[in-house]
Fold these 2 entries.
Entry 1:
Amino acid sequence: MRAAFVRGLTAAARQDPRVILLSSDLGFKIFDDFAAEFPGRFLNVGVAESNMIGVAAGLALGGMSPFAYSIAPFATLRCLEHVRNDVCYHNLSVTIVGLGGGYSYGHNGPTHHSLEDIAVMRVLPNMTVVCPGDPVEVEQAVVAAAAHGSPIYLRIGRSGDPVVHTGPVRFQIGRAITLRDGHDCTLISTGNTLPLAVEISDRLRASSISCRVLNMHTVKPLDEAALYACAGENRPLFTIEEHSRIGGLGSAVAEWAAMNRISCPLHLFGAADAFAECTGSQAYLRALCGLTAEHVADTIAAKLVASC
Amino acid sequence: MLQARARAVRARVLRMAHAGKTPHVASALSCVDLLVALYFSALRIDPANPEDSGRDRLLLSKGHGCMAQYGALAERGFFPEEVLAEYARDGGRLAEHPGPHCVPGIEAATGSLGHGLPIGAGLALAAKVRRAQYRVFVVLSDGECFEGSVWEAALFAPVLKLEGLTAIVDYNGWSAMAATRPAMEPLADKWRAFGWSVQEIDGHDVQSLASILGSVPFESGRPSAIIARTVKGKGVSFMENDLEWHYRPPNDQDLQRALLEIRE
């Protein structure tokens, strides 16, 4: 998704002279072409995330549309109060780009994992939270973010994320995308679990279970119309995310369901409320918390049997 | 005359703290002369056109001193005097730390320390990128200089040659609970070492302040830093250098005594 981010940003910068990129010393070589094409509009601010966010806010107050880029926990938690006061309180056109959502930084360890960022960004007033599901969505999300006019947290994967959208797709912030239709249940995904969600749906189909896949790439605001459409069938809802089960997509859907008296069953798939106890690749750590196609598909199948 | 303006702003600060029963009166008195020199002399601003894109920007990073800023903005004609009655009143626009654009002339919300200088650096950078001519002034407290983000921005601005940025430290020697000098000294050398062009001045000599603030940048290609030697609670003898007045609102009697001193 990193390369897609650069492609999207390049497209946005060509359209809009206000676009400027700040990095807190992340992205070795990948911004070279951007910097060459747009002199003065790429800035490595050094390993100083709080300053980066404050500078981004100042740039936005001065009429620019900055993107502030770092590894997800550093772009969100390290400088959280600057995000809250400088960016959100002023409701500024700043996009905070969190690279490596979830377990993308696998063997780098829990300091680099990002399992809390959606929760923490979602609670901030004026913040829109966007977690594209594949590189195609990232590219379009960046262009949309530049024109959005208010704070965005853009959570992307790392590199090597598979392409899900092989055909054309129209990405709109706040509008969920249905990737597989289905009538037995709905699996709602955000961010980099999208390929997994599609794989789960395909696996269930082989067992004659028809599972819709709804890509809720925007976690805040939720696409409530899309959720109502699924819930109206009164079939079970499942959420999946590479994020803590506390505070992320699943929580957001559960809040929506509770406040709107949605009666269909809801089950959350996501990371445990724990730091990884051992080192592991992204795939390994996903498996430890049950985020595999096999485990999720089996669980969904069992839940469907139980709810019949 | 700037001294008369400063006296008028000090009186407003005292009345606001008294009516609102709020703390930080001494912090506000500490920066009155700085703000008067800025708003009445150094800044290129037009109260009738407060959103003019070419205006100089002033950020009060020590947001808890905002009674002085509210008072100075009213004195300068940014909004009617009666707006000050909204200070610390339910439903009012003026909180004990300024909100974003709560009244004309407030450029950024502050209150949590260590935010103004990074924002100011961003504003100065935007001017550079967009070839705008405005300058940015950020007033910090010395206690605020304990915040790491101040020094992140202090490292950043000289690298970017942000000569449109001026940091002014209201160096009254006190944070909320302690004397700051043991940690801060030598404060001018610290800023100099980070690459700023530094001058140390008397932060209550409003005429000298006006001429020095009007002369920035001190060197081309460098941001400027002014270490303004101030007195916490300046102008009210019983409030000066007494941390009690970081917390205590003036009662009726305190207000009358203080106003008498201000008139002198």
Entry 2:
Amino acid sequence: MNGLSGFQGYINIEEENVCQLTGQGLPFSRDIDWKGYKIDDRTGDKEEAERVGDTKSIPLWFIISGSKKLIAERPIKANIYKEEDCFTVENEPLDIYAVGFTLNEAIENFMDHVVEFWEHYKALPDNKAGKFAKNLKNKYLTSFIEEN
Amino acid sequence: MQLDRSDIISVLPSKGFKKKEKRKHTYFYHVYNGKESGITTFVSRGTKYKSYGNELLGVMKKQLKLSTLPQLKDLIECPMTTDKYNKILKESGFL
């Protein structure tokens, strides 16, 4: 069993391609059967024709990075892909694309990035933010509250 | 395709990105006309991330709102100027 402190639960790599996720940020245990994608060398896109498994999504209620804990107003959907050598965890509305060479690492990185962007946008004055940044700032500040 | 992390770190500030060092990652925030655009990327510390291959570059390409890996290579290896990159962001509605 691999520990994952930021997740307040664990991700159990049972076999090469099967993970079981359990954690405080999750409503239930879930088995994930990883298959994978092939990356197009020219565009960097995932080749649909090579896709033999689906994207897996998990809801996250809590985001924990270091000593910081954010509570999601509504669960944050983390889409997880298994690529050739690494995992990608992403949430397009929050514009977060995290990677890791293990699923644990990718989720930890995802949480690091959420906390970094939440802190960054919280401190960013509106007059220093362009249109897209203001939109992201609004999403971050309305999506999470900090646990004291 | 592969790019060195050190090249990414050294080049992005010259392409309009503000660097911010954190414990596990180095973040880059794009600035245009004195305002943050909301375009960001990051590189991670650790020996596993010394060289960025297709998977990591594919993610970075999405973060930087580029369409292809060669575009990202051009941005990092310098043929793509700051103005050209900003033009791409304008055309795709991010600026």
